[in-house]
Write a structure and sequence with these properties.
There is one protein chain. The protein is of the alpha/beta class. Helix content is 56%, strand content 9%. Strand 2, helix 1 and strand 3 form a beta-alpha-beta unit. The chain is elongated, with a radius of gyration of 25 Å. The termini are far apart.
């Protein structure tokens, strides 16, 4: 943890260190005699969409009782503050009735002051600051409807029910937070080693990460990629990829399946050191799974699937089938798409046909 001071119910509320505000007027600090509902959210968090909608209703219901909702994005990934702002503004467009302040912090201050010392790992996460400036509640936003009326009448914070709920929250969240802190250290160690191409140290760090949390998708991906495409250790890397593919197919986890396919057939990588028989056997298994699932996908996801399977067919020598899949992928697509998918399909099709 980055702070030795534990933040819990009945702690004094920390400072509000928001880099900038995307919606609403700036709020420098919590004002006395008001109750604040502070929500941590993120644009890539699926649960946050429903949580934001609920907060809009809650703000409307309690607007005449001195309650102010404030939402802060503290973990956005973008190259600059301007990009973070644009990213959040675009995401907020789906909430035309938004009726509360929304800010962001890309400095790490809000995580250091609020999330880390309260053992909060997952978002959405809610903090309620009462009229006296103390934390009255920390937890998931769906519990607000039961808690907020009691916060407003001053009976919640010191109640036996609140204390029991807080003990239960900490008992559940502290081990998660400790684990996340260790994972953060491992990621930093891996990044530092990869920066100087010290693959042996990076591998040791990633093996530590996989052992700590075998279900962590990012550790497993990085581990397989390092073995196959940086260290070119086929003896260790291929069995790791085979197990990865088995798990991906068994769970039908789309991101895992796509990663595995890219490790085998992405044109950006070299495959001269890969054993062809094993590579194409894994590719065939993945392709069959992708094509079976494609029937259930929307046009965009199906196009992504067809593009990757086309890589497999082209690499294995069946260029006609590769071209056929690319043409099928292109048929329903209108416009360039959000990430240039149509352009990629057109370029790949031209390459396969020997055209410009």
């Amino acid at each position: 943890m980055e702070s030795n001071k534990i933040l819990s119910v009945e702690s004094r509320a920390p400072a509000l260190k928001v880099r900038d505000w995307v919606r609403g007027e700036a709020l420098a600090s919590f004002q006395p005699d008001r109750v604040y509902v502070l929500e941590f959210f993120g644009t890539s968090c699926g649960y946050c969409v429903e949580a934001m909608s609920d907060l809009i209703e809650l703000q409307e219901s309690y607007k005449d009782r001195g309650v102010e909702v404030v939402a802060v994005a503290a973990g956005e990934s973008a190259a600059s503050a301007d990009e973070v702002r644009s990213q959040i503004a675009a995401w907020l467009a789906q909430f035309p009735e938004l009726n509360f302040r929304v800010g962001f912090d890309d400095t790490g201050a809000m995580d250091t002051l609020w999330m880390d010392p309260s053992f909060s790992v997952e978002i959405p996460q809610t903090f309620v600051v009462d009229r006296d400036g103390y934390l009255a509640f920390i937890g998931e936003p769906d519990k607000l409807h039961d808690v907020l009326p009691q916060v407003l009448d001053g009976t919640w914070r010191t109640s036996a029910q609140a204390q029991a709920a807080e003990r239960e929250r900490i008992a559940e969240d502290e081990p998660k937070a400790r684990k996340e802190a260790l994972k953060k250290q491992i990621r930093a160690k891996t990044a530092a080693a990869e920066e100087i191409e010290d693959w042996k140290t990076a591998l040791a760090a990633l093996e530590e990460g996989v052992a700590l949390d075998p279900d962590d998708f990012s550790f497993r991906c990085a581990h397989v990629h390092l073995l196959l495409h940086e260290m070119h250790d086929m003896q260790t890397g291929l069995p790791a990829l085979r197990q990865f593919i088995r798990d991906a197919i068994n769970t039908n986890y789309e991101a895992m399946l796509e990663f595995a396919f890219r490790e085998l057939f992405d044109p950006a990588y070299g495959y001269s050191q890969f054993p062809s028989v094993e590579r194409f056997a894994m590719g065939k298994e993945l392709s069959e799974h992708f094509l079976a699932q494609a029937r259930l996908q929307d046009d965009y996801d199906r196009a992504v699937s067809y593009l990757m399977v086309a890589w497999y067919y082209h690499a294995s020598g069946n260029k006609d089938r590769a071209v056929e899949l690319l043409e099928l992928a292109l048929q329903p697509l209108d416009g360039p798409g959000p990430d240039g998918l149509k352009d990629d399909l057109l370029q790949t099709l031209a390459d396969y046909k020997g055209e410009k």
